[in-house]
Design brief:
The chain has helices spanning 3-14, 16-27, 38-56, 80-104, and strands at 57-64, 67-74. It has one domain. With 108 residues, it is of the alpha+beta class. The mean pLDDT is 87. The chain contains 4 helices and 2 strands, in the order H-H-H-E-E-H. A hairpin with a 2-residue loop joins strand 1 and strand 2 (67-74). It has a two-stranded antiparallel sheet. The protein is globular, with a radius of gyration of 17 Å. 63% of the residues lie in helices and 15% in strands.
Amino acid sequence: MRRDVRFAILGLLLLLPAVVLVSAGLLRLELPDLLVHPVFVMGGLLLAFALNALSVLRFRLAHEEGAVVGAMSIRLRGTVLNLTTLALSCLLLATIAVYLFVENFQPR
């Protein structure tokens, strides 16, 4: 199995706590506290994003005329599963961030 596919499958497994949390919130279900622990949810989201970003994004550092030049490029050669996992992790992270803002916002 290729490295990209392994990263995508591992990323999808790491996204499960966040998917369960968001789905349970939308369906108004109660979940055990251990399953929705912030370390599992946010750690899984960030780790899934990082693993799949390695397959899709390219980072380069070069030394040109006495200066260090950095470049980041998006490579669409990653599998569709990597792109899907990357997009899903961004979507879940945005959903949780919006929920946290709306739940804790108090107009002054």
